[in-house]
Amino acid sequence: MDSERTTILVVDDEPFYLEMLTELLSDDYSLLVAKNGEQALRRARGRTRPNLILLDITMPVMGGFEVCRRLKNNTLTRQIPVIFLTARNDVQDEIRGLELGAVDYVSKPINGQLLKRRVATHLSLAERHFALERLVQERTRELQQTKDALVFSMGAMAEMRDRETGNHLLRTEHYVRILAESLAEISEYGSLLDRTTIDLIRRAAPLHDIGKIGVPDRILQKKGPLTEEEQAEMRNHVLYGERLLDDAAGYLGETPFIHAARDIAGNHHERWDGSGYPRGRKGEEIPLSARLMALADVYDALTSRRCYKEPITHEDAVRMILQESGTHFDPQVVNSFERKQEKFLDIMNKHRD
C-alpha cells in the first residue's frame, strides 16, 4: 500500500496519547485526529475517509465500543479496520471489542514499534481484502455480462424466425426498465420493485417470446393474414416459452431469473380485463413483470415496421395505449408510461431497425 496516500484516524480523549501517536505515525501516514466519539464518527464519514482507525475505549459521553458499533453499522465505514487502544487489561473487554468488529487490541502504555508493525500489518491485510473484493466484483460483472449476452442471443434466435430484429429485444428491455423504475416511485410499488428486482426483470425481458422457437416457420414467416387455426398455434408460443423455462428450472434448479423469465414469457399476452391469453388472467392475477412487458411489447409493435404493416407515430402509439388503460393494460403501468413517454421516444429513435 502507498503510505503517502494512507490516512489513519486517531481517537483519544487524552492529549498525551494524541501527541504521542501523532509523533509516532505522522512521518509515514496522513493523520486525522478526534478527541471524542462524536468527532470520530464525523471524521470517519468525512471527505477524506481513513484507511484505519486507532480508537481509545475509555472516553466520556461515547466510549470506544459504541463508536465501533456505529462504525460497523454504517455502510460508509463498516469496512475500515479498527484497532482498540486501552489501559484496561480485561480479557472480556478484548473479546467484546473483537466481537464488535475490531481487528486488534493494543494495551497502554503503548510500545511504539509494536504499534507501528501492527498498523502496517492491518493496512496490508485491508488492502489485500479490498483488492480481492474488487477482483470478485469484476469477475462477477464479467460473468453477468456473459449471461446477459447468452440470454439476449437466445431471445434473438426466436425473434429472427418471425422476421423481427434484435433491436426489438434491445428496445423492449429498455422500455421495461423505464416502466419499472417509474412505477417504483409510487410508494405501494417501492418494496416490490427494488433495484435488484428491476434489474432481474430487465435481464429476463429478452426471453419474452422465446416460445416462438416452437411455432412452425410456415406460420411465423407467413406474409398474409393468419387463419384462426394458425392464430391459435401462434398464441401457443407463450405456453412453449413456459415449458422451455420449466425445463431449464428442472436442469438448473429454480432461480429468481428463471422465475421472472417464465412469468414474462407465459403472461405478457394476458390483459388487465381478463380478455387475454393463454389463461384469461386479469388484474393483479397477472405477474407485475408481465404487465410491464405487455405495454413495452405493444408500444414497440405499434412503432416498428413489420412485413405486414407500417409503423405508427410515437404520438399515435401513446394515444392508443392511454385508451387501453384498464382494459388491455394495468392503469398504474399506463400512468408510468405517460410520465416517461419521452424516454420511450428517445430509445425508439436511438435503436431503430
Would you kindly provide a brief summary of this structure?
Helices cover 58% and strands 7% of the residues. The protein is α/β, with parallel strands linked by helices.
Report on the architecture of this protein.
It is built from 16 helices and 5 strands. It has a 5-stranded parallel sheet, sandwiched between helices. By secondary structure, the chain is an alpha/beta fold. Helix 6 (166-183) packs across helix 13 and helix 6 packs antiparallel against helix 16. The protein has 2 domains: 3-133, Rossmann fold (3-Layer(aba) Sandwich); 162-350, Hypothetical protein af1432. Strand 1 (7-11), helix 1 and strand 2 (30-34) form a beta-alpha-beta unit. The two termini are 50 Å apart.
